[in-house]
Amino acid sequence: MADDPEEREFTLSINGEEQRIRATPDMPLLWALRQEAGLSGVKFGCGAALCGACTVHLDGNPVRSCVIPVAAAENSDITTIEGLQDDPTARKLFDAWLETDVMQCGYCQAGQIMSAHALLRRTPKPSPDDIDMAMSGNICRCGTYLRIREAIRIASGQEES
Ligand code: FES
Ligand code: FES
Fold it and tell me: Where is the domain boundary, 49, 83, 117?
């Protein structure tokens, strides 16, 4: 099959490392991360910015990678769940997630943790309303919402609600 004439090389900063990938400018960042960079933690759910399964950070802010063209991410620091493994805030979230036994099927959970991490970075002691607002765009078909909220409270050093 012939190459797409619009395809070109992009240099992306992913989890602190530069990676070169070939893509068309409008390829969703989600596919660049999963298929070209081999990072499978980011998940495809709706493809329309409605479910949050594809959440990653661009310059520390949570975004839906299914609707971000790869060309728009070229000059940003991209962080995926794989890039948070040694992050102290993420470690607190991982521990709290285990403590509260959040996960069921697990499909939405990387996106949930990416949103929770961004919340704790900007609001270290979030109120229940802060948590609800920050997490409202992350859908969990298994209905783990209450445990997610509890885990975020625990990770932020607050009493269980
Ligand atoms: S797959 Fe991106 S928001 Fe649902
Ligand atoms: S744990 Fe199954 S979709 Fe959230």
Answer: 83
